[in-house]
Amino acid sequence: MSSLRERGILCFNHCSPVNVLCFEIPDDCPVCGVSLDSSPCLSPPFRIPSPFANAKAIPYSVVIKPTVGTFLQDFKGNSNLHVGITNSKGAVYNYDEGGLHKDKDKYSWQQSISIPLLDKYDDELMELWDECLESYSSSELWTPARYDETTHNCYDLAIGFLNSISYGEFKGRSEAQLSRKSFCTEYIIPHTKKAARYIELYRKIESLKFVKKEESYC
Fold first, then answer.
1. 0.90 cut: is pTM over it?
2. Which of 10, 72, 90, 132 lies at a CB distance of 3.0 to 4.6 Å from 56, suitable for a disulfide?
């Protein structure tokens, strides 16, 4: 699974106000050329938080990945996205032309955007989550024959499940029922925009070895 390996982006400041972003700390400062051993950084290196995680480790979540390939290697602005819902153990329930899937392999959603839906105080819904998800996904709605790329797909499974457990009402949303538009506006677009910014930076560093920025990435 080497194609899924994500290198951590490091940020440090040696010559204020210019920050350097890279995968590995160089021997010499890319801004002034001075050895970092002989001249300490103004701010020590720290790792930029990645927007990606292994869905296996994020229970009770909406999870997103490209339909084809991975975010860091293959994602473009017009790429199709595949959506799923994790149970309490991180298994991803998702729907495509092959029907309903319960992906338990730790590699199948290794590089995904995960959006937690519950917090530690939501014990009532946590207790029912797995049973409700299993029951809802077992419906005849999610057979291969019913799949339609536009009108009945992975988004409908996720939205339908959340509406079936009155998730919006439980969380006190102004609109209790999620629509496809509200689901994309609240759960998909903000997170994919953030990921796109990270991907752009990641690819620049792959190409140039380091990136200089006068403002903080974070």
1. no
2. 90
